[in-house]
Amino acid sequence: MSRPTVEHLELLRELHDRGSLAAVAAALHKTPSALSQQLKAAQRELGVPLVARSGRGLQLTDAGTALARSAVGVATALAEAEASWQRFQGSATGTVRLACFHSAGELLVPGLLDRLRPHPGLVLETSDEDVAQDDFGALAADYDVVVAHRSDDVAAPAREDLVVVPLLREPMDVALPADHPLATRAHVTPADVIGEDWIAPPAEFPIDRVLSAIAARAGAPVRVVRRTTHLPLTELLVARGHGVALLPRYTTREHAPAGLVLVPLRDLRAGRLVEALLRPDRHARWVVRLVVDELVAEAGAVVAP
Question: C-alpha dihedral over 132, 138, 139, 141, to 10 degrees?
Fold first, then answer.
C-alpha cells in the first residue's frame, strides 16, 4: 500500500473545507473531471475509499477525513520550514493576500501599507469582502489573512481550524443629525432612541445585531427605513436628517461629515470585535506573520488616540 503524498493531502483538505468538487475545481483552476480522476488515482494508490457519493456530490469517508485533517499539520510544517529558510537568508519575500471588510480596510490598510515599506520583497494584495459575520471563516480558504468583525455580545462561531488574532474592539455609537434634540447628550439609552427611523446594514451583520439588542432592551421593535452596507452613505443620510444609525466609533471619527454627531450608547454593551482569521499553515509563513504583526500594531495605534 502506498503512502499519501502532499498532493493527496492538499486535495482532500480542499474538499473537506470547500464541500464540493466543483468549488475545489474553481479555487484550484482545474476541471472537476481532472480532480475526479486525481481522487480515483489516490484511492487506487492508497487502497482505501477516500470519498463516497452523497446525493449528487461527494462526501469524505472516515479515511478521507483523517487525511484531510492531517494535511493541516503537514502544510504548516512545510510553511514553517520555508519561514526558517527565509529568516536565515534575511529576506522576507512573497505575496500576501488580504481580505478586509470595507470600513476596516479604510481604518487599517493605509497605515498597514506604510508599515510594510521596509519590506520591499513583500507584496500585499488587498480585496474587499463584506459578508455576514458567520461567513468570514470560509474566506480563509481563499486568502492568507481575512480581517473579520463580529458582535461582541455573542459567542464566537466554531473556528477550530483557524488561527484567530484579535485586532481591536470598536464601540458602536448612535449617529444623530447635529440638530437632533439628543445630539447634545453625553450619552443615550435604548429607550431614548428606539422610536427613531433607523438606517441599518443587512440582517446578520454585526451592527444590525446590536440594533436587535437595542430593541430587546427597549422592549419595542426597531423601525428600519433603509438598509445599506456602505457606511459613508449612512453617514451622509444621517447628517441630512434621513434617520439615525449605529456607526463604529474609530472608523466614523476619521471622516464624519458636517452635521453628524456621535453619541455613546449606555445601558447596553454595543461594539464589534475586529479579528484576523488565518489557516494555520498560512500563519506560519514569515511574510504573512509580518503582515499580521503590523496589522496588530496599526490596530493599536487606531485605538490609542
Answer: 180
